[in-house]
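Figure 6 in text form: structure in, sequence out.
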C-alpha cells in the first residue's frame, strides 16, 4: 500500500546539506576506527575494542550506508489499529517514520522525525474523524470530518500526508475537490504554508492487518490490556466511598484497607508510565508490580481482581517488545537475511521500508 507525502522543498535542501555533514563525520569515524583496528597487536585488544564500540558499530555502519545511498527525508508510513477509549469506538494511528534511525525511541514524539495522525471510527455508525499534528506535537482541538470515506483504504487512496520535518508535524489533507469539508485548521495550514514550493513522494504504508497478522505484532492486544487495566482501576477507585462505609461497619479491617490504598496507588503510578512513556520503558515496572502482586502471600480482594489484568499487560507488552528487539537485531546483524525474510512476502514494501520498519 502507498500513500502520497507532500514535502516542503526547503526541508529537502536543508536535509541534503545535513546528510553531507553527517556523511563526512561518518567517513572520519570509519577511517579512525579502521586505523585503530590496524594498530591492535593481539586478539585480546581487538576484542576489547569491539566491546567498547558495542551496538554503535552496527548502528553507524547502517547509518553510513543510508547516508551514502538514501534520499533526503526517506520515510515509511505504518498504521496501528487500537481500541478506542470509548468501548463503542476504535482508532487507527498513522505514523510516518524517518528511514535511517535504528535505535529504540525514548519518547513517543520522537518516532523518527514525524508525529502521528489519529483516526477514530464509531463502531455503530461507521463515522470517522481525524486529529492531525501541528507545531511540534500540538494536536488539533477539533477533528476533521471523514464522513465521505467508507474505510481506511479509501482515505489512503484519496487523501495525502503533509509533513513539516523541522516542526515534527504530520497532517492528513483532504482532496481539494472536497474543499467544503476543509476544517479551519486546514485553511490556516494552507495560509501558513504560503507559496512554498512542495514536492510529492509516494511512500510505502504498512497497514494494520499486515502488522498484526503478517508481522505478528499484537499491538491491539497490548493497547486493550492497558485500557482494561485502567478501567478496572477506575472502577475499584470509584468504590472508595463504599469501602469507607464497610470500614465504619467493621467489615474491612484497617490494615486491609491501607494495603488496598497502597496497591491502588502503585497501579496508578504504573498507568502513568503506560500512558506517558514508550513500551520499552514500561516492561520493568509492569513486571515488578505483577510479580509482587502474584507472590503476595495474603492478597486482598482488590489485588486478586487486578492481578489478571496485570498478567495480560505483562504478557502482551513483552510479546511486542521481544518481537521488536529481534527484528531490530536481525535488520542490523543479518541484513541480507532480514531483507529477504518471508515475513515481507505479502507486504509489497521496498527494501528501504523494511529497514525503516524496525524504528518504531
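Output sequence:
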Amino acid at each position: 500500500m502507498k500513500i502520497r507525502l507532500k514535502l516542503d522543498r526547503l526541508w529537502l535542501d536543508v536535509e541534503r546539506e545535513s546528510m553531507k555533514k553527517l556523511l563526512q563525520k561518518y567517513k572520519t569515524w570509519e577511517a579512525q576506527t579502521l586505523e585503530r583496528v590496524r594498530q591492535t597487536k593481539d586478539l585480546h585488544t581487538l576484542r576489547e575494542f569491539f566491546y567498547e564500540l558495542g551496538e554503535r558499530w552496527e548502528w553507524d555502519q547502517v547509518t553510513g550506508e543510508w547516508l551514502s545511498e538514501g534520499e533526503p527525508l526517506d520515510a515509511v508510513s505504518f498504521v496501528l489499529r487500537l481500541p478506542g477509549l470509548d468501548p463503542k469506538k476504535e482508532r487507527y494511528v498513522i505514523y510516518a517514520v524517518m528511514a535511517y534511525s535504528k535505535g529504540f525511541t525514548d519518547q513517543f514524539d520522537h518516532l523518527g522525525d514525524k508525529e502521528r495522525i489519529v483516526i477514530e471510527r464509531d463502531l455503530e455508525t461507521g463515522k470517522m474523524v481525524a486529529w492531525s499534528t501541528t507545531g511540534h506535537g500540538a494536536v488539533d482541538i477539533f477533528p476533521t470530518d471523514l464522513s465521505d470515506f467508507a474505510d481506511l483504504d479509501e482515505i489512503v487512496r484519496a487523501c495525502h500526508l503533509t509533513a513539516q520535518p523541522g516542526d515534527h508535524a504530520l497532517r492528513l489533507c483532504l482532496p481539494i475537490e472536497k474543499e467544503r469539508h476543509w476544517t479551519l485548521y486546514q485553511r490556516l495550514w494552507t495560509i501558513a504554508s504560503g507559496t512554498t514550493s512542495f514536492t510529492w513522494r509516494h511512500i510505502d504504508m504498512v497497514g494494520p492487518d499486515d502488522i498484526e497478522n503478517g508481522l505478528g505484532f499484537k499491538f491491539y492486544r497490548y493497547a486493550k490490556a492497558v485500557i482494561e487495566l485502567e478501567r478496572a482501576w477506575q472502577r475499584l477507585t470509584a468504590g472508595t466511598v463504599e469501602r469507607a462505609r464497610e470500614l465504619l461497619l467493621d467489615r474491612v479491617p484497617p490494615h486491609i484497607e491501607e494495603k488496598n490504598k497502597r496497591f491502588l496507588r502503585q497501579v496508578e503510578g504504573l498507568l502513568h508510565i503506560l500512558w506517558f512513556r514508550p513500551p520499552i520503558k514500561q516492561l520493568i515496572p509492569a513486571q515488578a508490580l505483577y510479580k509482587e502482586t502474584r507472590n503476595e502471600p495474603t492478597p486482598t480482594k482488590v489485588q486478586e481482581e487486578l492481578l489478571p489484568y496485570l498478567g495480560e499487560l505483562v504478557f502482551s507488552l513483552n510479546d511486542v517488545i521481544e518481537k521488536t528487539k529481534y527484528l531490530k537485531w536481525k535488520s542490523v546483524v543479518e541484513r541480507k537475511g532480514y531483507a529477504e525474510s518471508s515475513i515481507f512476502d505479502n507486504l509489497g514494501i521496498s527494501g528501504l521500508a523494511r529497514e525503516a520498519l524496525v524504528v518504531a
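Caption detail: The chain has two domains: 1-206, 219-321.
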